[in-house]
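STRUCTURE:
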């Protein structure tokens, strides 16, 4: 049996994130050093990973095209935004359930100072947006050889 330390602050943060997703709100970028609250219709799920060379952000955007998504990096904040348009209703078709989210979205991430903004790249394939944010050369770990005297 594994014991897990209870962290009430983490629990509150997770609950806040779930409520924000439920009500379609996400924290947007920063303005004058303060977080702005941006109302969005939905929010894509993301995974952020790190290697020695870069940060990689995977965003799930099924049903969107490359032109439906805009990526900006300004003042150390990476922002994804776009819109998933609702399909036209057709005469003679009745909807019994609509669970997919439509409308505008925006996600912002504060990036560390150790990134190389000039080399950020993105690719979009099979509904997944992958953003590569390389670390600057000074941020990459270096092996130091220890000499024995």
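SEQUENCE:
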């Amino acid at each position: 049996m594994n014991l897990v330390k209870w962290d009430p602050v983490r629990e509150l943060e997770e609950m806040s994130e779930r409520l924000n997703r439920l009500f379609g709100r996400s924290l947007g970028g920063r303005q004058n050093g303060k977080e702005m609250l941006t109302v969005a219709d939905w929010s894509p799920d993301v995974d952020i990973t790190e290697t020695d060379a870069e940060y990689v952000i995977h965003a799930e955007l099924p049903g969107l095209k490359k032109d439906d998504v805009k990526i900006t990096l300004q003042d150390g904040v990476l922002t994804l935004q776009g819109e998933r348009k609702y399909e036209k209703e057709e005469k003679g078709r009745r909807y019994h359930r609509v669970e997919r989210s439509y409308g505008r979205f925006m996600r912002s991430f504060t990036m560390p100072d150790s990134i190389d903004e000039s080399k950020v790249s993105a690719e979009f394939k099979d509904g997944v947006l992958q953003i590569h944010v390389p670390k600057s050369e000074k941020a990459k770990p270096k092996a130091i050889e220890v000499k024995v005297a």
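REMARK: Confidence is low (pLDDT under 50) at residues 26-30.
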